[in-house]
Amino acid sequence: MAHLRPFSATRFARRMDLEISKLIAPPFDVLDENAKAALQAAHPNNIVTIDLPHIPPKAAGPFEKYEQANATFDAWLENGTLVQDRRPALYPYTQTFEKHGRTYHRRGFYALVRLAPFGQGQVVPHEKTYKGAIEDRLALMRAMRVQMSPIFGIYSDPRNEMTSLLYHSLARPEMSGTLDGVKHDLWSVIDAEVENHVIDFMGTRPIYIADGHHRYTTALTYQLEMEAQNGGPLPPKHPANYCLFVLIGMQDDGLLILPTHRMIGNLTGFENADVTQTFIDSLTSAFDVQKMGVSPENLAVYANDMLSRQPAHTFGFYVGSTRTLYQLSLKNVDILQPLEPDQSESLRRLDVSILQRYLLDEVLQKYCATGELKKTYTADATQIADLVDGNSHQVAVLLQPTPLHALEDLAKHNEVMPQKSTYFYPKLATGLVMNSLRS
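Structure (tokenized):
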């Protein structure tokens, strides 16, 4: 079962000189040097100062960077910029945002979840992790002994019991800020009866990681290091046994999954119209191919509206050199069976699996110039036409969203999806709530 507990959050102080909108930030892994600088220009105490000491966070940086982040964190505690709540609580958290002409309210709550290795507990992954990003987060956690960003977890709650319970009598938010057009509201609930109900309810349900696989793996690694230092298992209530989560019900009306489209580069021959047409013709063995009368300027309209209304296993395929969009409709849903006989049917029939294992590995790879395809990802379809210019990227593959039930289906087989299979929009804010591991 999933073990939850309330905790005493570390937060920015509620002071007139600390406007929360200028202090919070997107997760570290979506920021570059320019984005970090812009956030710090808005306020010198923006959370990126300590959450993103090294750029890019794809590998561990110099030791001094993480030590400086720790020194800054301690200074903010000392001068009252950051404060730790005196009593443990659960923290309801709402994001209000607009997408495709509709307003959404996504409701969840912060809590600590007891760590368990993947496959040995009720925390279930759905994507692969990579070593470099874990090294960066682990270096930061070692230096600071703080969990800076929550993991995005989802769970089944068909009747929205947790939302009804936690949000029943909330007044005005204790903290509220807006980041990139998304409004973030936070409360705290200190009620033993409510806490016990939440703990009991969640104790019977698995938690699926929607976003934050690298952070969870980092927490597991840190826990093992603390056990090694302790000479054995840690006491049950040791801080390193738990990880900071935001938990949201699968049935929440604001739980929105966007597709992550692929821009592919390092292909040869696609600047030649004859080669391109030969390639398109070769796709007809596996797909029904339709040339679409969609201009590059309207790719986002196609991706966000038209493609989503097509049958399952339909892809958009955009060629930069000819500025032409094709629609690919898969003929055989079991196309991966001979290629991946040991995978479950659930994994083989996912669009992201078909894209990766067949369209990229088996088809486009043959046109690769130097042995490895260049892949760039975006959930913002307005970027595709500019990125696929025939030079750095020759083609783009547009996808439909991965269905939410796929997380549950793959969990039954202990399988994970390819990288960038889901994009839960919007991202959680970093800086509203932090969890100290300092015992």
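The mean pLDDT is 93. The longest strand covers residues 102-114.
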